[in-house]
Amino acid sequence: MNASGIKFGLGVYTALFIVFLYGPLVVLAILSFQTGPEGGPQFPIIEWSTYWYKHLFGLTPPSRIAPLPIDQALFRSLALAVMTMIVSTVLGVTAAQAFRKKFRGSGVIFYLIVLGMMVPGVLVGLGMALVANTLGIDRHWWGTAFVLHVVYTFPFAFLVMLAIFNRFDPSVEEAAWSLGVPPARTFRKITFPLIFPGVLSAMLFAFTLSYDEFSRTLFASGRDLTLPLAIYGTFSVEVHPNVFAFGVLTTLFSFALLGTYAVLMGLSVRRAKRMAIQEEA
Amino acid sequence: MIFDLELKSVGKVYDNGTPAVIDFNLSVTKGEFIAFLGPSGCGKTTTLRMIAGFEGISSGDMLIRGERMNDVPPQRRPTSMIFQNYALFPHMTVRQNVGYGLDVKGMARSERDAKVDRILATLGLEDIASRKPDKLSGGQRQRIALARGLVVEPDILLLDEPLGALDANLRKAIQNELKLLQKSLGVTFIFVTHAQSEALALSDRIVVMNQGRVEQVSPPHQLYTRPNTPFVAQFIGRNTVLSGEVAGNEGEDVVVTTGIGTLSGRANGAVAHKGRVNLVVPAEAIEVHVADEVTAPGAKNRVDARIERSEVVGHIAHLTARLDDGRSVSLEAHVDKYRPGTFPAGTPVFLSWNPAEATVIPAN
């Protein structure tokens, strides 16, 4: 095959990839503009409308379709994701820092940490529920479920940071020590700024994984539902396009999150540049 | 007398049991320029890192200005290290890089700025002071690293192959600068290199290391002309090492019976030589004669050989000759003396040297 043929093939492949990636999302997005309340979650579109978006926010006249029970659940999921993100990232950074030097049992501990992301979620959730019952601990999203979210996301943060430290040149730290900078300050002022892009990535991982988490949370969260559980709960009755409308909004939220990540990255680069200019003045 | 640096029987054994440095002894006076020279893996960088405090010392003692340093962490040692890759802080400007060691000391801003300005001027870095290091050339980054290491006024500056990443011309220029800087500041420099030309050109004394041990500590000229061990003889210069047995003495000369005849050289220092020895003959000391030339009266060192290869580089002719025992010998001669074509391959010749220029050392 000639070069242009290969190029064409790769182009088709990429296009197909994007179709499979975004296709379902696009279908949902289109159906979310179905008319309501009589329109269902299927083609054809009877009439274009923003009814289901209004329905989400309780702006439509009462009908037989109950509003999505998401306001509390959304708050819980966001709070849980933020808590998980902070704890997992701190654990991930410090654990990866510890793993830069070999220590006794480091091999075993590595696999124990990574196990957290490999064991089936349903089993861990169920196990947690059993342990909590046996010990008489109440199950809460901010307690038992939070612990499981950390166990699940910490390995991701840890592996991201491990990769970052792998490419990190330790002689920069040694140079600082040899200039008289104590190790703690070296970590804050030299190491941390250099690994910060990695820390941001670890945070993003931990947040999105926790925000989405279903199987572990199912058994471990107790009475109060997180967002994925609440949405799944509505499926058991009947699916209405209001779920799609909500899906579109959360996807937009995720994009906003990615945007924030990009802006933060850009800022950390720009701030360094600005500091340089101030120094010059 | 208080030395700037004393290493007393210093040893390093890695966690897996491999010895990296064995029984290292050295005393360095203030303002000396010392080179650690040896092949890679000989322990020279490990020794430097022990002095800096990055590696623990397994046995022996290390003192800086009379103070024991074995358990002092790197940030509290009066040393400063220059790395082969410079290890500049990429998120800081040149000025911030250089001033960082002073910031940490809690120095007043005005005093810090004055010191930074002075060292930037000394090394010609004023114009790029507000730039980031990653946009700068290798030579510039090298100077920034030097400025950063020197501005904190260390007792000892440690340099780990600082010229290794530069191209040949730049290396030569910075080499000269480094020497001048060191002399003008009077700071003790410990310089690790695997390039003998650097060590010979720069240092007051050279420590030759091999497989974790110190082979010889000598000023460059002495190291070059009077190697102490077979390793040094092979590693420094272009020497031919002939093994043999001491037959006796003739005045200052030691006569050695070798497989290719009875030859003579000078004993090295006070070492008494008996039994098996090595005779070290530098390439520059060997004279080449056409085989039918009449032997000059009193020329004892006469070895028959056959020219195998001749190659002229600049004004130096590099000849390779094969001896009767099959060994090949490197020779060097000025081209004005031996014009190219004088000794085509296959020419039978004899080689001779002045006994004073050859050295008798113990056998391996």
Order of helices and strands of chain B: EEEHEEEHHHEHEHEEHHEEEEEEEEEE
DSSP helix count of chain A? 11
Total count of strands of chain B: 20
Cα(first) to Cα(last) distance of chain B is: 36 Å
Average per-residue pLDDT of chain B, rounded, comes to: 86
Any idea what the shape of chain B is? Answer: elongated
Helix content of chain B: 10-25%
Mean pLDDT of chain A: 87
Q: What is the number of strand segments of chain A?
A: 0
Keywords (chain A): Cell membrane, Membrane, Plasmid, Transmembrane, Transmembrane helix, Transport
Main location (chain A): membrane
Subcellular location (chain A): Cell membrane
Organism (chain A): Shinella sedimenti
Description:
The complex is a heterodimer of chains A (281) and B (364). In chain A, 74% of the residues lie in helices and 0% in strands. By secondary structure, chain A is an all-alpha fold. Chain A has a domain of 169 residues: MetI-like (MetI-like fold), CATH 1.10.3720. In chain A, helix 6 packs across helix 8. The relative contact order of chain A is 0.14. With 364 residues, chain B is α+β, with helices and mostly antiparallel strands. Chain B has two domains: 221 residues, Rossmann fold (3-Layer(aba) Sandwich), CATH 3.40.50; 125 residues, OB fold (Dihydrolipoamide Acetyltransferase, E2P) (Beta Barrel), CATH 2.40.50.100. Chain B is 23% helix and 36% strand. Chain B has eight helices and 20 strands. In chain B, helix 2 packs across helix 3, helix 2 runs parallel beside helix 4 and helix 3 crosses helix 4. Chain B is elongated, with a radius of gyration of 25 Å. Classes of the chains: A mainly alpha (281), B alpha+beta (364). Chain A: It is a multi-pass membrane protein. Chain A: InterPro entries: Bact_Polyamine_Transport (IPR051789), MetI-like (IPR000515), MetI-like_sf (IPR035906). Chain A: Keywords: Cell membrane, Membrane, Plasmid, Transmembrane, Transmembrane helix, Transport. Chain A: Belongs to the binding-protein-dependent transport system permease family. CysTW subfamily. Chain A: It is found in: Cell membrane.
